[in-house]
Amino acid sequence: MSSFEKTLNNLYPGALPQERFVEASSRALKRLGFDADNTIACVGVCRDEICRPLVDAMYEAWGEAFNFSSLAGMLFLGRTGFSAAQHHAPVHRGRQRYLYLVAAHIALGERGEIGLCHRTGQSKPSNACGALCAFLGELKRGSVHADLRADDIEQSLLKARLLEKIRWGQVPSLPELTLLAGKVIQEDLENMIALTVDASRADYAVLCGIQIHGPEGAELFWPTASYAVVSGKKRALKIGKGNRRKK
Ligand SMILES: [Zn+2]
Fold first, then answer.
1. What are the tens digits of pLDDT across the range 71-120?
2. Rounded to the nearest whole angstrom, what is the distance from the C-alpha of residue 215 to the centroid of ligand 1?
3. Cα(211) to centroid of ligand 1, in Å?
4. How far, in Å, from the CA of 178 to the mean position of ligand 1?
5. pLDDT of 197-209, one tens digit each?
6. pLDDT tens digits, 127-163
7. Contacting residues for 227 by C-beta, under 8 A, at least 6 apart
8. How far, in Å, is the centroid of ligand 1 from the Cα of 31?
9. Rounded distance from Cα 129 to ligand 1 centre (Å)
10. Do the Cβ atoms of 197 and 99 come closer than 8 Å?
11. Ligand 1 center to residue 236 CA distance, Å?
């Protein structure tokens, strides 16, 4: 087992190759009546271009998606953004279907280096998620600029939202901070669903997790929550735990 695989299995046991995650979740959702013709997909990942393959895979499976993305995958589109996506959804027999996929992300290097990735055209490795790493840098220095800056709106909001969840003086590791971001993203998604979705006339599905960028273009997804609410009833989605490499 390579160092990358060891770190992956240690931090994200059961992470799936991204394509398999999209295929398995799409299959599970089709069994519950969601398909590309009757569903609008809403995808929120980090703005980082290395997150794009997941958006493309969702596009292949579900058609053009409403863009929920902000730095680190945080959800800052608010009621107006959520309502806009719902207004664009197809209506089939008086019912709408929304599919929400949201994720934080992290890179793992070939030696298991946490947060490091090699970007095309660059000789030195860089960080992912860069927004979380920048925030972590401030935490390590003990000086976080938590005010709302007009010239850095998303990063300001990210720091304010995550600081609510970090104990005073605590400095998480990057995987801990990534996990925390993922939890906050799920919490914010579910809060916005409660505020904007009318379950009497819409079914919806929630896919949350961590997007993992490995060496040599390996793209993985670690699901943390997968469920659908159909006719007001919550149903768990079975999307498998594959990819546990045994050597
Ligand atoms: Zn990022």
1. 999 999 999 999 999 999 999 999 999 999 999 999 999 999 999 988 88
2. 17
3. 10
4. 10
5. 999 999 999 999 9
6. 999 999 999 999 999 999 889 999 999 999 999 999 9
7. 205, 206, 234, 235, 236, 237
8. 33
9. 4
10. no
11. 28
Number of H helices, E strands in the chain: 7, 9
Query: Could you tell me the distance, in angstroms and rounded to a whole number, from the CA of residue 49 to the centre of ligand 1?
Result: 9
Q: How far apart are CA 61 and CA 149, in angstroms?
A: 38
Question: How many other CB atoms sit within 10 Å of the CB of residue 247?
Answer: 5
In sequence order, the β-bridge partners of residue 225 are: 208
Query: What's the pTM value of the predicted model, to 2 decimals?
Result: 0.94
Give the phi and the psi of residue 172 in degrees, each rounded to 5: -75, 165
Region for 19 from its dihedrals, namely left if φ exceeds 0, alpha if ψ lies in -120 to 50, beta otherwise: alpha
Q: Cα(105) to centroid of ligand 1, in Å?
A: 6
Interatomic CA distance for residues 214 and 138, integer angstroms: 26
Paired strand residues for 103? 209
CA of 184 to the centre of ligand 1 (A): 15
212, β-bridge pairs: 106, 220
**Which pair of structure tokens corresponds to residue 178?**
């990534």
Structure tokens belonging to residue 181: 């971001």
The residue to which tokens 């850095």 are assigned: 152
For residue 124, how far is its CA from the centre of ligand 1 (angstroms)? 18
Cα of 127 vs centre of ligand 1, distance in Å, is 8
| Cα 62 to Cα 56: distance, rounded to the nearest angstrom | 10
